[in-house]
Amino acid sequence: MVVFTLLASTKVMARTSPNLVISTADVKDMRGAIQKDGQFTKAFVASKLSVDEQIAQVITVPLPADGGGGYTHERHKKNYKLMYDAGIVYQLTQDEKYASYVRDMLLEYAKLYPTLPLHPKRKMGKQNPGKLFWQSLNEAVWLVYTSQAYDLILSSLTANEKTEIENGLFRPVVKFLSVESPETFNKVHNHGTWTTAAVGMTGYVLGEQEWVEQALYGLDKSGTGGFLRQLDELFSPQGYYNEGPYYQRYALMPFVTFAKAIQTNQPEREIFQYRDGIVLKAIDTTIQLSYNKLFFPINDAIKSKGIDTIELVNGVTIAYGLTEDSSLLDIARQQDQVILTGDGLKVANALDKNLDTSYKFKSVAFGDGNDGKQGALVVMRQDVGGEQAVLFKPAAQGLGHGHFDKLTWQFYDKGEEIVSDYGAARFLNVEAKYGGRYLPENDTWAKQTVAHNTVVVDEKSHFNANVEMGNANHPELLFFAKNEHATVSSAQIDSAYKGVSLKRTMALINLPRQSKQDHEQSLVVDIFDVNSNEEHQYDLPVHFKGHLISTNFTLATQLTSLPVLGKENGYQHLWLKAQAQPKAGLAQITWLNDNGRFYTSSSIMDGDASLIFSQIGANDPLFNLRNENAYITRKSHAKNHTFVSVLEPHGEYNPSKEFTISAVSKVEALTYKKINNIDLVDIVFSNNKHYLLAVNTTKNNQLNTFSFNGSKYQFDGRFKLFDIKQ
């Protein structure tokens, strides 16, 4: 049972304007600021020029006809942004022409909206339909912006104009999004977040406190739905959002915007202190879940989205306004966008004074689920010849946007993806590509397990690609630990496949330097245990970015035609390009990334396992999929198997200056043993370096002793990297 600590109130608030994200006090400060030079003034001038250009055109409020990316869809999006921007310019200039433009557009909407049926391009059974837009989500986003635009010009309107706009537009929209769409309004999902924020903010503007209470606590005000339930259920205690960073970024906007409106109107609710400051934690976690300014692309993610997205710009701005944390200014400077709000003015002034300090990205296991115990999203970071990151995903399913990729991983180095995740199969708002919606291949490829870097059993996806089953089960994070030379994490799950247990341990290592002349050397160690009482086929894909350079085994390559690797569960989209049967021992695959660095994967082979080289693109008649490469280690007719590999960045390729250095792996030998429940990975390099990684993945964090190659070893805690002297 959820216990709400916020102070409830049904008092009707006085209607002052503006009084949402921007207050009357903010307006006074902002009017003064634009009389001086600075980043805030530059942002204002640029916005005013853009608004002036747009309001010179005839107001267009078209009859809805198109899906995402189509003309009418995009026109209504541009309209709400234009109304919002024009409202701000009105407040700062006090020029009535801006308020009049917003008023006239709102009056057009007030005439149109009551006549609208459900959108003609609605997708039955998939999304809740809107009227202005093909799904109600877009309608809620429209209302979040438009309610603020109305708030900004409210003081300029006559009583009759207010009545016409409110009765013709805002009350019908609120009714449609709330009491007529209870399944969305009360849903614990980003659609529900946008909807409750839109209705609650409109409630503040129109003086309808009942709408605010319903937005906070659900239609029946019981707390089983509503904005606060979203805060309770969708974030872990560390501020990780269940659907992953891409949707955390998207959902952040209504969370921070409505929270700011609540604080402005009812500071006694202490919304930014709610649940130990969960909104501020969510903003920081969103930043942490990025690499080289782009979000980690797990689940249904568009890979080009990053920290400069407007949702996080607003989040960072509001967070700085509350905390004055100077490290947030580092992110704000990288975002290079100033928001025309009171908090935006604080950010701009601080940047003008160069008050920013470096933002610190950390190695963190972000607990998943509202209790933080439903698995975790693990981020490992270090700086070795450039910033490196491993993303390890023993996280929960992530609702309908989640992928079937338990225990998958990605690797980033020197600003680039090295071991990659496909993300979503979608061309966002490109109408020619399936109306801008998720492509059919999002289900047939992107969500399927073989599209990720984790074990596939019998060519079937985790949970048989059943979302409900996936949401009901999650991995267990066994541990997350770090020291100066390594960050290590281990997790397991036994419900992805019936009768099969999966356990993965990953380590990001910075090898100790023996002397100042030594080059820095990093490794990613991967130990994947699969156990069953019955025989299965186990496939472990690695989706890599770059050009294949060499292998230390013979390839049987398809030269004149390409067969398809399988028939379903994503395999139908893979061309079989080559096969190999490496001998027992060390199998090495080297590729070259666009960052000019070589990467060698060294794997332990038993002589029976095979390697498959594949490329995405089969059974793709409309060329919807990117043609990316992978290699798959396949172990057939096995009950138990342990995949062990080491990924080694090395060397440099510089075609501009025409030199290549260290293009060959230094890993000379690799062995694996399990002694007394301790995993041992022995790594020998060609330059006489020799290391032994010992990891205790049991549930007991204890003093560990073992014998290896005639010597006794001891370590306390979860792991230790031993430097074996030659």
UniProtKB/TrEMBL annotation:
Residues covered by the Heparinase II/III-like C-terminal domain: 369-597
Metal-binding among keywords: no
Keywords: Lyase, Periplasm, Signal
Localization annotation: Periplasm
Entry's Gene Ontology molecular function annotations: lyase activity
Start and end residues of each Alginate lyase domain: 71-284
UniProt organism field: Cognaticolwellia beringensis
The keyword Lyase is annotated on this UniProt entry: yes
InterPro entries: Alginate_lyase_dom, Chondroitin_lyas, Hepar_II_III_C
GO CC list: periplasmic space
Coiled-coil residue spans: none
Name assigned to this protein: Alginate lyase
SUPFAM superfamilies: Chondroitin AC/alginate lyase
